[in-house]
Amino acid sequence: MKSTKTIKSWSFYLLLTVILSATSCGKGETEDITPSNPDSSNTRKNPNVSLSKEAAPSSFSTKILLEDYTATWCGYCPRVGHAIEEAMKKNNKIIGIGVHDDKEMGFSKVESLMKKFNIGGFPTAMLNRSTVWSESYTPLQKKLSQTSSTGIAIQSSLTGDQVKGKLKIGFNSNLSKSINYAILLVEDKVVAAQKNYYNEDKDSPFYQKGEVIENFQHVNVLRKSATDIFGDIVPEEYTKKGKVCQADFEFKLDGYKSENCYIIAFVVEKDGNNVLNVQMAKVGSNKDFD
């Protein structure tokens, strides 16, 4: 017979598990996808990256990336999406992306991303691909106050449904870590029905909006990646003070609304974790180093 102490201990851990899962939507079984390794050859070479003749600026503004793992079937997800929107309104150096796992807007590599970053339930927001965001503005302010040794510029043109562009990465100091770059295409203002568990919560902005919000507007939905989703290699010989390296990229919009499409590019440590800086530009426009 089990002792009273053992039964109480088992009961405590069962209760704790229930509490932790009460404010997130569970994720069903996912296929076992091993994240791609952007550095599998260990050569750190990339023929698509070349050295620009221009000199890098002496300083760069720091921007941060928030990735919202979300789904239209998740009734708790509007809360985190709203928190990210509010943070972006407070500071335009905060860049948010919606990474969906649903039939309406599901991203093709979402399973790989979730496995890499141990995403077990929705909603979950990752800050700079290094920590889970607490939905507080304070840690964002702390990140924004840090100086950045890298900067990003984006140039792009739009012809019909085809986007072609050039990414530039500048360095104002010698990097001691190997890095990768990622280039993503997002579409803003995507309308799709959204499950809402806050319909009866008077403190929620989604109070009395309906248990399903039919015309919910989804922000910066991740559509495509022009690179490995964990980043392509930046050769070490380019990551030196004063240098600017560059890489070409292209996307096909596939019917996405061009007026709502943006390119988001970021520099990340070679294992795919810890974003160093990020930049965002409307498709068909140029965004210089800043």
From TrEMBL:
It holds the Pfam family Omp28. Keywords: Signal. Residues 28-54 are annotated as: Disordered. Transmembrane segments: none annotated. Residues 33-51 have a biased composition (Polar residues). InterPro entries: Ig-like_fold, Omp28, Thioredoxin-like_sf, Thioredoxin_domain. PROSITE patterns: PROKAR_LIPOPROTEIN (PS51257), THIOREDOXIN_2 (PS51352). Residues 1-24 form the signal peptide. Residues 31-195 form the Thioredoxin domain. This is Thioredoxin. It comes from Marinifilum flexuosum.
